[in-house]
Amino acid sequence: MKINFNKDKGLVPVIIQDDRTLQVLMLGYMNEEAFEKTEKEGIVTFFSRSKNRLWTKGEESGNFLTVKSIDIDCDQDTILIKVIPRNIVCHTGSFSCFGEKKSKGFLYELEEKISQRIDQKTEGSYTYSLFQRGINKIAQKVGEEAVELVIEAKDNNEDLFKNEAADLLYHFLILLKTKGFSLEEIEQILQDRNK
């Protein structure tokens, strides 16, 4: 991995991104020594321009950033490090230096929209009308969508297969909401199993 530390007084910008959610957490700078220390220890160390020294993120707070992967941009003058943050990242107390909201992608946005439609009792909403029919009907709908997905898996129509997969995910999110669980809880189980 060759990094060009010669462009800006021996420093390169480092973008820190959550490995699980892909949310950008912060921006820092590294010199060659900070980069080598980060690679060796697996914990992000920056060069602090204000303190004029190496600074390991979390050295005072305990909110370390554990390295999952390191990538260099095409010009070899910017680093992207995907991390598992121990806790909050920003010195202000926010999860990210770019705002409090954790961004997890469209499925989480869809989960939030489903939750809003149910909680706000949105009349005319398919989601809310299905919810009103109760757990048995919701579970039956998830089963129907699963069977339809299996049937499409045996055929060669990619569009129908993808649409049935989307239908299953959508109805699964309604079922999770009805049962009082979140997508994040299911994701955590999968992450735990992956260890």
Structure at a glance:
The chain is of the alpha+beta class and 195 residues long.
Structure description:
- With 195 residues, the chain is an alpha+beta fold.
- It folds into 2 domains: 12-85, Phosphoribosyl-AMP cyclohydrolase (Ubiquitin-like (UB roll)), CATH 3.10.20.810; 106-194, MazG-like (Helix Hairpins, Orthogonal Bundle), CATH 1.10.287.
- It has helices at 32-41, 106-119, 126-132, 135-153, 158-179, 183-194, and strands at residues 12-18, 24-30, 45-48, 53-56, 65-72, 79-85.
- The chain has a 4-stranded mixed sheet with strand order 2-1-6-5, covered by helices on one side. Strands 3-4 form a two-stranded antiparallel ribbon.
- A hairpin with a 5-residue loop joins strand 1 (12-18) and strand 2.
- Helix 2 (106-119) crosses helix 5 and helix 4 packs antiparallel against helix 5.
- The two termini are 28 Å apart.
Order of secondary-structure elements: EEHEEEEHHHHH
SS elements, strand count: 6
Proportion of residues in β-strands: 15-25%
Global geometry: elongated
Strand order of the biggest β-sheet: 2-1-6-5
Low-confidence stretches: none
Number of domains: 2
CATH class of the largest domain: Mainly Alpha
